[in-house]
Design goal:
heterodimer, A: 5-stranded mixed sheet, B: 288 residues, alpha+beta, 4-stranded antiparallel sheet, binds flavin-adenine dinucleotide, binds FE2/S2 (inorganic) cluster, metal ion binding (chain A), 2 iron, 2 sulfur cluster binding (chain A), Carbon-monoxide dehydrogenase small subunit (chain A), 2Fe-2S (chain A), 2Fe-2S_ferredoxin-like_sf (chain A)
């Protein structure tokens, strides 16, 4: 079956490296007008349209792809302007809501939105218009019943949905062969509001201050983001396991990706932990303080906190307890109340439980090894703490030795 | 919500992509639909983004000897609209659930596999269909089954200096039927639980092979050979799929659904989609 020519999809032109602090000229066609913008690599199309070209009809909401406010047409298909860097748009043809119609000559979709009261505040309207234009121009055969699903990529905050769907359905029926093209695309002068250099152009690379070094661990009040209870069966006898728990240096080395950097007075320890997972990479500098050490009960309790340079923070109240288990082994239990704040919390709040749980599972294996050999194998680069931090979503995944682990993930809003 | 500064390069040859990735501080930028949010929230700060969309050999999709092959720069929406992709029915069944139209216009099939989100549809389809992933890296080219490629949540067999070149989905064979379903809170959201099924019947209509992949229920798509389950319990699948759910659904749960709720969803979806795949397989057999 090699008869069909493989389908090619728009190969872009190669481009040489653009340094992080450099700007580069990008030529694109916006609403029918050819224009060149000068941008740093990190400027996204949404900002460039608004700030350099003065096209403020493209709204920005979440800036991470969820809300759909920034939807524009790129080469005839709807795309999120906030998920596209302007440097990726060399040669692209872009249509924004300004290109769709003018107050004097509105596009049928605009007329229908008006007729059906398909807007209240109007913030989502540009996104809704561009998304529905894409739908009706590329798939005019779409059925009425499919509209709620097809229009779900743009969110309206003020209950405009009924009117919006009615408007789109109206135009769908009146234009069964596809909607007319944009009405306001043509040569004209695009005037920016900015200085022309582009947002962030030439701005000094942001210096991230080292996370402020706390002297004492403070746990936030309020319910934790996640509660983790892990029980692991270790092969080594309880006394040897306790010897590891009692030696904070050794204990810290059992945490993959973690490293003790300083021993302070008052049973306090400074360290650093690196979390790497897909494109996510965080480096936490932290402090741990032992608040209870009970050799008779083989119980250790400590408070820990860590902050990432990017503004994410985590705090935990941890209790580790070792108990003699069957066959001369040990049952190690860990209980942790984990608090997450900052970006990491926003990004993967629901995953906090799974992240922490895996951490403890890997940790327990290392404790067993340390109890046997008195040391921990230096984790290689690949064995860095590779944990779940998830994407922009709420679902979780985790592999558990069932029956041994229980995680409750609480969520604060 | 602005990405930290990064360097950007768009090489025209695969070798140059690999050269840019050597050293490990670069990240492949395909459609950017998962990577850009990570950058915007500054959860990742790669030194260089290596845009792979100008490499001609990565931009083609189409039928080949051993199946439908999709290059790494091919967008999901292009595959969705490609008639020859219909030779792999599961792709068409799953694609409408991969985010929204506006995301599929930029997102790539291979990018979804490389990102390996535990609740993503395409890695699950790739595992159930026994697709093959092709990689290029410092050690040369290699191919591996999708099931081996995805090693955990957002973790794959690809190293930081590797590029996924393409994925090939085997064409549907005579006597094969498929099922796909997911439950999400809202259309376009990641699934709370989802299943992909593939059933093959012989000339007498008896099941010869049955595979089931669950997603959104563990740290990665989980695939099981369910041939005995289907042959022994064809008339009443629910108890058997409920038992299977106990075994494979092991996510910790979150505010949108506990582990128990997800097990229930999975058990119901699995029974329904196995039975659908079986009927479709028999229909196709009769018509062929
Ligand atoms: C609001 C929203 C909702 C979404 N909903 C869903 C959903 O329901 N289901 C779903 O499956 N997805 C969903 N996604 C994710 C998505 O749309 C993408 O399909 C996909 O996960 C990433 O593909 P991409 O080409 O954009 O990859 P990118 O974002 O460019 O890359 C993602 C990761 O993979 C790496 N990568 C990409 N290509 C390669 C390659 N060829 N070789 C090596 N590494 C590579 C990158 O370095 C990066 O780490 C959603 C995204 C958003 C923003
Ligand atoms: S601003 Fe782009 S999707 Fe929200
Ligand atoms: S009209 Fe206000 S957000 Fe939709």
């Amino acid at each position: 079956m090699t008869t069909v020519e493989p389908r090619r999809t728009g190969t872009a032109e190669p481009r040489d490296r653009v340094a992080a602090d450099e700007t580069v000229g990008i030529r694109m066609t916006v609403n029918g007008t050819e224009t060149t913008v000068t941008v740093p690599p990190r400027a996204h199309l949404g900002d460039v349209l608004r700030e350099q070209l003065g096209l403020t009809g493209t709204h920005l909401g979440c800036e991470h792809g969820v809300c759909g406010m920034c939807t524009v047409l790129v080469d005839g298909e709807a795309a999120r302007a906030c998920l596209l860097f302007a440097v990726q748009c060399e040669g692209a043809e872009i249509v924004t809501v300004e290109g769709l119609g003018t107050p004097e000559d509105q596009h049928p979709l605009q007329q229908a939105f008006s007729a059906h009261h398909a807007l209240q505040c109007g913030f989502c309207t540009p996104g809704m218009l561009m998304s529905s234009y894409d739908l009706l121009s590329n798939t005019p055969e779409v059925e009425s019943e499919e509209l709620p699903e097809q229009m779900s990529g743009v969110l309206c905050r003020c209950t405009g949905y009924r009117g919006i769907l009615a408007a789109v359905d109206d135009v769908r029926q009146s234009h069964p062969d596809g909607v007319p093209g944009p009405r306001a695309c043509g040569a004209r002068t695009l005037v920016g509001r900015g200085t022309g250099g582009g947002s962030g152009a030439g701005a000094p690379a942001e210096e991230v201050p080292a996370a402020a070094l706390a002297q004492e661990v403070r746990l936030p009040s309020g319910p934790p983001s996640a509660v983790v209870d892990v029980t692991s069966a270790l092969r080594q006898p309880v006394e040897r396991v306790w010897a590891v728990l009692d030696d904070f240096d050794l204990l810290a080395r059992c945490l993959p990706g973690a490293r003790l950097t300083e021993v302070l007075d008052g049973d306090r320890y400074r360290g650093r932990a690196v979390v790497a997972l897909g494109p996510v990479k965080l480096s936490f500098d932290g402090l741990a303080q032992v608040v209870e050490r009970d050799p008779a009960a083989h119980r250790l309790r400590f408070h820990a906190q860590g902050a990432d340079a990017g503004g994410s923070a985590t705090q935990a109240d941890v209790v580790l307890a070792a108990e003699a288990g069957p066959d001369g082994g040990t049952v190690l239990t860990a209980h942790a109340d984990v608090h997450l704040t900052g970006r990491v919390a926003q990004f993967g709040r629901a995953l906090a439980g799974d992240v922490s749980r895996r951490l403890f599972e890997q940790f327990a294996t290392s404790v067993d090894e340390a109890a046997e050999t008195g040391s921990v194998t230096e984790p290689g680069r690949g064995a860095q703490l590779r944990l779940v931090l998830g994407t922009v979503r709420d679902t979780v995944g985790a592999l558990v030795r069932r029956g041994l682990t229980r995680v409750r993930t609480l969520r604060r809003r | 919500m602005k990405a930290a500064p990064f360097a950007y390069v768009r090489p025209g040859r695969l070798d140059d992509v690999l050269g840019e990735l050597a050293g490990g501080d670069g990240k492949v930028l395909a459609g950017g639909q998962s990577l850009v949010p990570v950058l915007a929230m500054r959860l990742g700060r790669p030194g260089t983004l290596v845009d792979i969309t100008a490499v001609p050999e990565l931009t083609a999709a189409g039928p080949e000897q051993d199946g439908y092959r999709i290059g790494a720069a091919v967008r999901q929406r292009a595959v969705e609209h490609d008639r020859s992709a219909r030779a792999v029915p599961l792709i068409g069944m799953a694609m409408p659930f991969v985010g929204h139209r506006e995301l599929r216009s930029r997102g790539t099939v291979c990018g979804s596999l490389a990102h390996a989100d535990p609740a993503a549809e395409l890695p699950a389809v790739a595992c159930c269909a026994q697709a093959t992933v092709e990689l290029a890296g410092p050690a040369g080219r290699r191919r591996m089954p999708a099931e081996e490629f995805v090693t955990g949540a957002m973790t794959t067999a690809a190293g930081p200096e590797d590029v996924v070149v393409a994925v090939t989905f085997p064409h549907a064979r005579p006597g094969e039927g498929f099922g796909f379903a997911e439950i999400a809170r809202r259309h376009g959201d990641f699934a709370l639980a989802g299943v992909v099924t593939r059933v093959r019947v012989g000339d007498d209509g008896a099941v010869t092979e049955a595979r089931l992949t669950g997603f959104g229920i563990s740290d990665r798509a989980v695939t099981r050979d369910v041939t005995p389950l289907l042959t022994e319990h064809e008339d009443d699948l629910r108890p058997a799929t409920a038992a299977l759910a106990d075994e494979v659904v092991d996510t910790g749960g979150d505010t949108h659904g506990s582990t128990g709720y997800r097990r229930r969803l999975f058990g119901v979806l699995a029974a329904r989609e196995l039975s659908r795949a079986l009927h479709r397989a028999r229909d196709r057999k009769e018509r062929s």
